[in-house]
Amino acid sequence: MNTSATQKINVQKVESSRIGQVDFDNLTFGSIFSDHMFECDYKDGAWQNPTIKPYGPLTISPAAKVFHYGQAVFEGMKAYKDENGKVWLFRPEQNFLRINKSSVRMAMPEFPRDIFFEALIELVKLDKDWVKPGLGNSLYIRPFVMATQVGVGASPSTEYKFMILLSPAQAYYLGDVKVVIADHYSRSANGGVGAAKAAGNYGAQFFPTNLAREKGFQQVIWTDASKHEYLEEAGTMNVFFRVNDTLLTAPISDRILDGVTRKSVIALAKKDNITVEERPVLVSEIVEAAEKGSLKEIFGAGTAAVISPVSAFSYKEKTFELDKQEDGFASRFKKELLDIQYNRSEDPFGWRYEVK
Ligand SMILES: *Cc1c(COP(=O)(O)O)cnc(C)c1O
User: Fold this and answer.
1) Ligand 1 near 194 CB (within 6 A)
2) Which end of the chain has fewer CB atoms at under 10 Å, N or C?
3) What is the separation of C-alpha 134 from the centre of its chain, rounded to a whole number of angstroms?
């Protein structure tokens, strides 16, 4: 029996590509999708009918459980094109493992490894013209799973849909990022779903983030839900603090998303002999370091923006500005990561994965 990717996945190609209508120099992140998408349904206890087909709307019952009980998880990864036109993924195994970990937490079935990778590779290959060369350009990849069983009974769905969408992206600059340290609202709690890439984690952050925006801050750094004493993460990015030349970041727990960018920064820092402490970081020690001048940098780490330097933070109505660091840790890790992702440097950790 031939079980090659093309045999297993049913591929329906578009008649004509929409790529000519896309202005690749003026993309709004995550708003335009490539010609094709991947879809696979879970029914009668098995994943069935993996299909690549033209990107387009779905027909779903309004009683599908995802709309009522929020069983939905997702991933975010990117494809990069090097100067020779080769296309690369960055640590895709991590995203595969994580979407299944998220699914388990939401009582959803795990997705098979072979179909995940075959679908990912076939889809990116089919739409590889949508990956534009040039540092910062990429094809954002959005795998996700949702509960599709019809019925508003409050129990886990027996049917699901796994999909992958592709969206062309340009360098994602958040500009000057100012953050508020949370002292009332929480993103996640002990025993909760903070470590899962669950759709609802984002929905829950929008309101408090809007309150921060009204005060001129773009993001919230979440703290532990019980006492708001420890710094955790920014909700779309993990967070690092540089005190003198030591890098601090919260340890992974069931409240924190185990970011691929986070663990890559830690590996790069260790390789460069930078001291990294993965330990609970007190808000008070960061405020004190800011007052003493030993707090050199704060930055976020996540796939979409890679590394985002924070220019100021506010805590209980007091704002602390950070001096701009031209060759600080943030710009150094950003360059090292981009060089690996775009095949511009050695890949000592074996993180690159060629799509061919
Ligand atoms: C996706 C995500 C991150 C960043 O993870 P990466 O794997 O680095 O993209 C950080 N925090 C949360 C809550 C996330 O959902």
Assistant:
1) no
2) N
3) 21
Compute the mean pLDDT over every residue in the chain, rounded to the nearest whole number: 95
Same domain (yes/no): 87, 117: yes
Length of the chain measured in residues: 356
For the residues of 127-188, what is the DSSP string, one character each?
TGGGS--STT-EEEEEEEEEE--B--SSS--S-EEEEEEEEEE------SEEEEE-SS--S-
Q: Using the 3D structure, point to which of 169, 204, 230 is the last residue of a domain.
A: 169
10-59 tens-digit pLDDT = 999 999 999 999 999 999 999 999 999 999 999 999 999 999 999 999 99
Q: Answer whether 177's CB lies under 8 Å from 218's CB.
A: yes
The three-class DSSP label of residue 291 is helix
Residues 320 and 149: their CA atoms lie apart, in Å, by: 49
Closest atom, ligand 1, to C-alpha of 237: 10
Q: Which domain holds residue 228?
A: 177-341
